[in-house]
């Protein structure tokens, strides 16, 4: 196993459960013994959302992980009532009816909780070592080459899984084995993420998760902001701006950026909050797809999962769930015939590529609409889907049926075809039965709390 991140540890749990005698995970980083940022995860300091579909998949792979996350301080947020969301079509209303939930916490906590649970429940071993290549042939991989240049050593393995993430070298490794012509594609909106941690103000512990979404239809750079509750009584405040609309790294500029969003609610919330960190920037946000599953040849005993197959603009909150779905595919194939079954690697690759392709299409379909995007432009099909999605989003500002369809898809509980279910189509055609809301749908108590936190002096709270 290459990589001790989320995808790697979930896959390691699957291998151990399948009866593999020895599961060794290699990682070049020194892993913290408590939740903490590590160098190999460039997006680790920014907001991550664990969607309902991903939670269910992770719970199947590592039983009890949801309870562990909640006990460690993660927050469970119902999409229907626990979130303020300003979309390109207006504020989504909050419904008292049932809807999917998501978990919010730092990415460091997710990784630490999963890693701890896997090590406690299985015989998985983690070794600090850098994977620098594969051993074997184009027909079969036999192990991993480790170490610094000139100091390589070979580690033999019956099955090798690359879950090394966004920085994988899998294409060059395959090239060294004689497997060439792997197609890659990058779509880069130029998104820059800026994140700062604040202490949650007294009385605001149950304030809704607040998101001001970027507008991909405005023909100008996308700008977004989020206030997300995380563990230890803190708010994670993340801003994102596509090329030409990037957020700054200085604290004053960061606050101004939040106040200049389509609604200043994020800035008003944090203007009176105590900052606990500096502003951290990240530019590792491009969508990258490696079409490994389409290779004419593929070696036995070599599987690729997670970000090594495809990475997505992190603003859409898909990566962790997609990693869990890929590990589920590995588990199903191992149950059919074990790690030595002929063709297992190819079947896992093709199965894991399906949720990757779905997430890729959703992310790229929006990113190509921003000015200055590199690597793609909207097709006629993209424009058709976009027009329908906008109509559905407009209906969702006041229609539970439309909002429910959107929640099911964005929470990754159902495939995007859910948007074309007859009930969803009817809701989109009928539109919202309520007029658009010009202000965030706050309760009287929440509105008073926002007023008490605001230090901006702006009118209209």
Automatic annotation (TrEMBL):
SUPFAM superfamilies for this protein: FAD/NAD(P)-binding domain
Span list, region Disordered: 435-461
Record InterPro entries: FAD-bd, FAD/NAD-bd_sf
Composition bias type Basic and acidic residues, residue spans: 445-454
Gene3D superfamilies: FAD/NAD(P)-binding domain
Protein name: NAD(P)-binding protein
Pfam families assigned to the protein according to its UniProt record, in alphabetical order: FAD_binding_3
FAD-binding domain sequence ranges: 2-335
């Amino acid at each position: 196993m290459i990589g001790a991140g989320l995808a790697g540890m979930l896959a390691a749990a699957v291998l151990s459960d399948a009866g593999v005698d020895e599961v060794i995970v290699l990682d070049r980083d020194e892993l913290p013994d408590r939740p903490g940022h590590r160098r190999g995860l460039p997006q680790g300091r920014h907001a991550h959302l664990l969607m309902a579909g991903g939670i269910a998949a992770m719970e199947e792979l590592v039983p009890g992980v949801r309870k562990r996350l909640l006990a460690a301080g993660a927050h469970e947020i119902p999409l229907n009532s626990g979130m303020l969301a300003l979309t390109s079509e207006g504020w989504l209303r909050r419904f008292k009816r049932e809807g999917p939930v998501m978990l919010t916490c730092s990415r460091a906590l997710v990784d630490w909780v999963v890693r701890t649970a896997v090590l406690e429940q299985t015989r998985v071993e983690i070794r600090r070592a850098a994977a620098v290549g594969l051993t074997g042939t184009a027909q079969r991989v036999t192990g991993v080459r480790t170490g610094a240049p000139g100091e390589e050593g070979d580690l033999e393995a019956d099955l090798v899984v690359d879950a090394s993430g966004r920085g994988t070298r899998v294409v060059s490794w395959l090239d060294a084995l004689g497997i060439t012509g792997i197609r890659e594609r990058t779509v880069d909106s130029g998104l820059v993420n800026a994140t700062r941690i604040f202490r949650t103000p007294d009385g605001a512990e149950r304030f809704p998760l607040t998101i001001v979404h970027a507008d991909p239809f405005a023909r100008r750079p996308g700008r977004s902001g989020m206030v997300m509750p995380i563990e230890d009584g803190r708010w994670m405040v993340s801003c994102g701006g596509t090329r030409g609309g990037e957020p700054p790294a200085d604290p004053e500029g960061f606050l101004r950026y939040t106040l200049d969003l389509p609604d200043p609610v994020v800035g008003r919330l944090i203007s009176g909050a105590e900052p606990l960190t500096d502003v951290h920037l990240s530019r590792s946000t491009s969508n990258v797809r490696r079409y490994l599953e389409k290779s004419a040849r593929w070696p036995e005993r070599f599987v690729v999962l997670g970000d090594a197959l495809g990475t997505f603009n992190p603003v859409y909150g898909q990566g962790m769930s997609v990693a869990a779905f890929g590990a589920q595919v590995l588990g199903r194939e191992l149950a059919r015939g074990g790690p030595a079954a002929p063709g297992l690697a190819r079947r896992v690759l093709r199965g894991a590529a399906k949720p990757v392709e779905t997430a890729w299409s959703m992310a790229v379909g929006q990113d190509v609409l921003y000015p200055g995007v590199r690597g793609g432009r909207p097709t006629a099909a993209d424009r058709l889907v976009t027009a329908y999605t906008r109509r559905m989003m407009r209906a969702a500002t006041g229609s539970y049926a439309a909002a429910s369809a959107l929640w099911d898809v964005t929470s990754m509980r159902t495939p995007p075809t859910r948007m074309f279910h007859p009930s969803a189509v009817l809701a989109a055609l009928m539109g919202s039965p309520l007029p658009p809301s010009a202000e965030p749908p706050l309760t009287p108590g929440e509105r008073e709390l926002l007023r008490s936190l605001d230090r901006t002096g702006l009118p209209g709270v």
